[in-house]
Amino acid sequence: MLAHLRRFGLDRFVADSPDGYVSKALAAVDDPAGPASVRARLRPRMQADIATDPVRAARALEDLVLDLWRQKQG
After folding, report:
1. How far is Cα 12 from Cα 16, in angstroms, rounded to an integer?
2. pLDDT 10s digits, 31-67
3. What pTM value is reported for the model?
4. How far is CA 20 from the centre of its chain?
5. Are 9 and 41 in contact (CB under 8 A)?
6. What is the Cα–Cα distance from 3 to 14, expressed in whole angstroms?
7. Are residues 43 and 55 in contact, defined by beta-carbon separation less than 8 angstroms?
8. In the chain, what are the domain boundaries?
């Protein structure tokens, strides 16, 4: 989960303690433009990321396996 938050630029929601989480949650609630801002940045990042495209991820894995096989064959 932490990796996904960081991957999509949502570090501001990552906390290192329960108190830190509460502080971040309160700060998010106090920012009325926050949700729209997050949505506007999140959608294109997720659409561009291979983790959200199973076909592209499978092809990348296939390519990797083929490359490794070719290297092993010499």
Report:
1. 11
2. 888 888 888 888 888 888 888 889 999 999 999 999 9
3. 0.53
4. 21
5. yes
6. 10
7. no
8. 2-73
